[in-house]
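User: Last request for today: this protein with protoporphyrin IX containing FE, please.
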Amino acid sequence: MIGILLTSVTEFILYVCFSILIGSLILFMVPKNKKTDVYIPKKLLYLSAILIPVAAFAPVLQTAIILAYGMDLWSILTNIILTFEIGKAWVFISIVTIILIFVLKSKNLSTKMHLKTWALFLVLLMLLGYTRSAHASTITEWRGFLFQTLHFLSVTIWIGILFIVSWFSKDKRNWKAFLKWFTPVAMVCLIIAMVAGYFTMGIDIDSYDDLDASITQEYQNSLITNYGQALLLKHILIISLVLFALVNGVMFRKRYNDESFHPLKWARMESFYALIVFGVTAFMGQSWPPHQIYSLIKTEGASPLFTALYDGDIVNDIQNAGQSGVFNVTISFGLENYLLLGLGSLFLVLTVYAATYKKSVFLSTSFSLLMSISFYMAIILGIQ
Ligand code: HEM
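Assistant: Here's the final one, the structure of the complex with protoporphyrin IX containing FE:
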């Protein structure tokens, strides 16, 4: 478990670094009158670039430690770097990082268009190197690579620009002009992220025990594992992220000229939710994908969060079963679940109300937290 938590942290760092680089380089390309006055420290760009190969090394090392098993770690590590997909991807990312640092170092980076384009191109190559070695890519011919790349790219463009503008703007000048192009960009990215995320999910939770299982059944079955729990939490947290994106991009429109309105504070709030989604995704990506529920529960056990809240028999049934088979988790909703869903919907409305009418970050985040808990409990308590 410690290993999973450590590699989850390095994975999280990877998402943040890619977002910072992509967001900064895109903003460098946007004309001054269409963005706020942003100051992006060069050191931040170097640090993000260097941290990518450092963080991407963690799963390589982890694989080596697992495989070494008392043998010479160094020779296993060299073997992985030279022959495994994850090792070759790491070498590729490291080489491109070195070239990127030279481009970033040039004095005219923020003024010369060809340098910015080169830098962005190199970061995209690094991103392709990363998604090429991801789980969904390695188990399919091209579909996983395509969907995961589209997913990650759209997320890093949206969240990257949001991060940089919300944390590195000097003030709110040009906020209206910025939102005019950023809101449609963010919406397109969100739609691509959702569609590509759906297909990536289909590959990652695909059941090998029951080849005819529907994606809904696979999703339900995954809920007893860490991977499925993180996936569900991620989806519930995305509701809050999208709510804050809507409030910032659409509902606050009338208030842009209001002197007392602080859009950066709200944009930071949105980026904070994105960070939480990144954290949960990082943990998910490092947990075992639920392709074979029977053997996974036998070897790794069920998700501790799930077992703490669930009092049915499915986990015991699987653990006591003599051989592999099809174990389906069913969800059925009764009064209690509908009440929780209703409560969650009420908190959803209150979240938007607290943001738009009460203008309170504290109240709206508290309501969105209560909304997430209600939706989560409604689903978990429905598992039979
Ligand atoms: C319905 C929506 C979504 C679904 C079904 C979905 C599903 C997935 C899946 C299955 C993965 C692969 C994880 C693994 O390695 O096993 C993934 C990765 C990821 N997701 Fe999502 N996701 C969705 C929306 C989002 C949103 C809105 C964000 C951002 C705020 C996001 C951020 C990420 C990141 C950073 C990764 C890791 C990079 C990668 O492996 O592609 N996802 N997502």
